[in-house]
Amino acid sequence: MTDSELIREFERTGDPARLNTLVGRHIGRVRGMIYAMVLNDADANDLTQEVFLKAVSNIGRFRGSARFSTWLHRIAMNTTRNFIRKKGRDRLVLGDTDPDRPDPAPRPGERLMAGEEEQLLTRALAALPPRLRSAFSLVVLQDMPAREAARVERCFLSTMYRRVDAARKALRHALGGVQ
Amino acid sequence: MKQRDRTLDERFRCWSSARESSDEHLRQMTARIVDEACRRRRVEACRKPGRAASAARHRLAWTGAAVAICAVAVWIAAPWRAAQHAGIERGDNRLARIRDDEAEQDRRLFGEMRRLFSDQLRWVAEFDGDVSVGVNDLPGGTDSNARPVSLRLVVVARTGSDPTWRVVWHGDLLLRADERVRVAASRDGAGTLTVWTHAVNEAAVAVEADVRLAAPVRVASRVDTVFADGIPREIAAMRSGDREYRVLQSARVL
């Protein structure tokens, strides 16, 4: 069943199973994108829930002219940016972890990543301006096609490419590499 | 892409995958989101009637004075537009009239359904033979003393070779007055009917409706008017080739 079909069915019947499928399909990527913006588990979890609740309460406005994932990521990006703006966290980050995180055991990726490397990359991302961080998050970390990322950010495709390129340069600089 | 970009991207992808939530954590978050979203949806569904009733007083004052159609908008495919108002005779309104015996049947049906679902019953619909019932998830979401109203929507058509108007789509909706409902008008959900009604007196009912049909003809029409004694009004008209369509609506307090 496509996203649009799930939405129509949920709108028509209010069946939680349809919503469960729809949310389950997107929550990983949306949370990943938000995490890359706020860089801590607690805020990422709270914002992820806020984004999906906003999306569900406005689901009647989703007309299907864009992909549902694009529409959802746009809500996520706007919500996250507002959060960052309110908190004055444009350049703050600290990779703090959620003490209530239910799965504290290291995952395979974590085992591979030394603590020092993780800190280094987190700080480099934190130093990026939000526009560059979101572009890098969407295109590189979420592997979203640049065209779709441009739709999420409502910018030209060329602008999206420039932002990703600028983000890479800034990150290389922060990591001590050559630009 | 340059090799150094690939290397950089790979380092950050590795960082990102290490920060991903576990499947179990995502499942738990999903469950919380779905629970909360469904709870809010139920609360919203219960609030809507109250809001509609409050807004209704303003609308009713206006409609009572003017007793007129405020806005009727029809959207049809571009080739049809030119022919829309081109010398079309009126459709046969009798085909959409709610007769006394039908009103009595509707009254009995709504009463029986109300006994089954108590104050959780919101509406009963029959669109082209498909019957559906709308109920609130929570008891107490509807005003059990509200007057039931019957609303009929009929699409009639005729061709150049056969000038008799024939019913090509028929919908009946029984609902409580002062309660806004949104009903799928077709199985695939492509058509919807959003209605709010108010019983002005025993013989007249104010109706505010947003009618959207995808078949047998594409219709998007807003209606804000007072119907008397189940007498139909034409709310939209259109032509496709040599085929003429009329959308007729009637309503009656039960």
What do you see in this structure?
- The complex is a heterodimer of chains A (179) and B (254).
- With 179 residues, chain A is mainly α.
- Chain A is built from nine helices and no strands.
- In chain A, 35% of the residues are buried.
- By secondary structure, chain B is α+β, with helices and mostly antiparallel strands.
- Chain B has helices spanning 3-18, 23-66, 78-81, 100-117, and strands at 121-127, 130-135, 148-159, 166-176, 181-184, 192-199, 204-213, 219-228, 233-240, 243-253.
- Chain B has a six-stranded antiparallel β-sheet. A four-stranded antiparallel β-sheet of chain B has the order 5-6-7-8, covered by helices on one side.
- The longest helix of chain B has 44 residues, at 23-66.
- The N and C termini of chain B lie far apart (72 Å).
- Chain A binds chain B through residues 8-9, 11-12, 14, 16, 19-20, 23-24, 27-28, 31-32, 35-36, 41, 45, 48-49, 52-53, 56-57, 101-103, 107, 109-110, 112-113, 117-118, 121-122, 125, 136, 140-141, 168, 171-172, 175, 177-178, and chain B through 4-5, 8-9, 11-22, 24-38, 40-41, 44, 137, 184, 189.
Structural class by helix and strand composition of chain B: alpha+beta
The overall pLDDT average of chain B reads 76
Overall residue-averaged pLDDT value of chain A: 82
Unreliable residue runs of chain B: 49-89
Low-confidence stretches of chain A: 89-112
Give the number of DSSP strands of chain A: 0
Structural class of chain A: mainly alpha
Q: Give the CA-based shape of chain B.
A: flat
User: Whole-number radius of gyration of chain A?
Assistant: 17 Å
CA-to-CA gap between the ends of chain B? 72 Å
Oligomer category: heterodimer
User: How many helix segments of chain B?
Assistant: 4
The interface involving the most residues is between: A-B, 46 and 37 residues
Q: What's the CATH superfamily of chain A, by name? A: RNA polymerase sigma factor, region 2, helix turn helix motif
- Give me the strand/helix succession of chain A: HHHHHHHHH
State the domain count of chain A.
Answer: 1
Beta-strand proportion of chain B: 25-35%
